[in-house]
Amino acid sequence: GVSVLLGGSISRALQQMSNSMIIDEKVLNDCLNEITRALLQADVQFKLVRDMQTNIKKIVNLDDLAAGHNKRKIIQQAIFNELCKILDPGKPAFTLKKGKSSVVMFVGLQGSGKTTTCTKYAYYHQKKGWKPALVCVDTFRAGAFDQLKQNSTKAKIPFYGSYTESDPVRIAVEGVGNLLCIGQATFDQAQAFKQSVAVGAMIVTKMDGHAKGGGALSAVAATKSPVIFIGTGEHMDEFEVFNVKPFVSRLLALLQELSEGTFTLRNFLKMGPIVQEISMLPGASQELMRKELDSSNLKLMNESQIMRIARGCGCPVRNVMEMLEKYKTTAKTWKRLEISKKGDMNAQNMR
Ligand code: GDP
């Protein structure tokens, strides 16, 4: 069995369910609605959530539940399996072939983390004995090549790019030829950059700062391609092989925070730039600082606490105060969102 952490109100819904004598359709629906709400908040696409709900209803047999089986376990397992199913596109992940050169193209929105992630990807493979090289074909964003150059130099990975050439295909062909001295096959691959290429695999970035992990589910559904890695920070080694089951467990743990509706200061800080400052502290101070922030109640936070946090982060008191102000505003918005989500859910009565 897989042990699953389910969201607070989801757990409560299941708890009630396992204790109640009669499990009718309404009880099951209430529970599924609770899960639906949490999933939508975690940025999972509406259609996916709706299909999942339908599937769970098909799987979870009310007669079985009535027969006194462990109801909670049955439903819990069904949710877990459904989420795993969504993340498994049913086709193998793209893999690098031993003894051959492969060209991997990174595609993504501006700021999504391509430059950072391709370095992480190259660094990861370099440590495993591969000979990676990086080519910057982003001729659009200012400073893209410099950023890649900097990253590559730091990781001691050969790189190629151009300040003057504006045709990305040309740079790709030259770069790949230059770094690998390879033949026609790779040239052809590089040429294929011109056409829009089918997505071979995905890397979900910013899993650390993101309050939502559900986007990965929607992405797999949209591209029918598997996620192979996740980015968990800005540093070179904050990069993990993606595994469906642990990810779903983590996602469900996140749903716990969301379904409890608690927008904590700690959650807020996960999204803020202050995290960066905290992450530069030595390990022990980081832990202290996190404890401080976890236990801090915004309303009760006094001057000396603010000063302690500022000192711990090595940033001006003014920054901490600004951050707290932002937190207050966001918390208010969050509350409104919570309320309106509840309203939506009742209106849609998702079936
Ligand atoms: P690009 O425009 O797609 O090349 O994006 P960049 O690689 O320049 O990344 C944009 C910003 O996101 C940079 O500040 C990165 O440091 C940051 N970033 C990238 N990946 C991660 C990640 O996994 N976690 C966090 N916290 N930040 C990331």
From TrEMBL:
GO cellular component terms listed in the entry, alphabetical order: cytosol; endoplasmic reticulum; signal recognition particle, endoplasmic reticulum targeting
Subunit-level organization: Component of a signal recognition particle (SRP) complex that consists of a 7SL RNA molecule of 300 nucleotides and six protein subunits: SRP72, SRP68, SRP54, SRP19, SRP14 and SRP9.
Enzyme class: hydrolase
Protein name (record): signal-recognition-particle GTPase
Catalytic activity: GTP + H2O = GDP + phosphate + H(+)
Residue stretches making up the SRP54-type proteins GTP-binding domain: 226-239
GO biological process, alphabetically ordered: SRP-dependent cotranslational protein targeting to membrane, translocation
Subcellular location(s) per record: Cytoplasm; Endoplasmic reticulum
Function: Component of the signal recognition particle (SRP) complex, a ribonucleoprotein complex that mediates the cotranslational targeting of secretory and membrane proteins to the endoplasmic reticulum (ER). As part of the SRP complex, associates with the SRP receptor (SR) component SRPRA to target secretory proteins to the endoplasmic reticulum membrane. Binds to the signal sequence of presecretory proteins when they emerge from the ribosomes. Displays basal GTPase activity, and stimulates reciprocal GTPase activation of the SR subunit SRPRA.
Boundaries of the shown chain within the full protein: 107 to 457 of 488
One function term, GO molecular function aspect: GTP binding
Source taxon at top rank: Eukaryota
E.C. number(s) listed in UniProt: 3.6.5.4
Keywords in alphabetical order: Cytoplasm, Endoplasmic reticulum, GTP-binding, Hydrolase, Nucleotide-binding, Ribonucleoprotein, RNA-binding, Signal recognition particle
Organism: Buddleja alternifolia
Family (UniProt): Belongs to the GTP-binding SRP family. SRP54 subfamily.
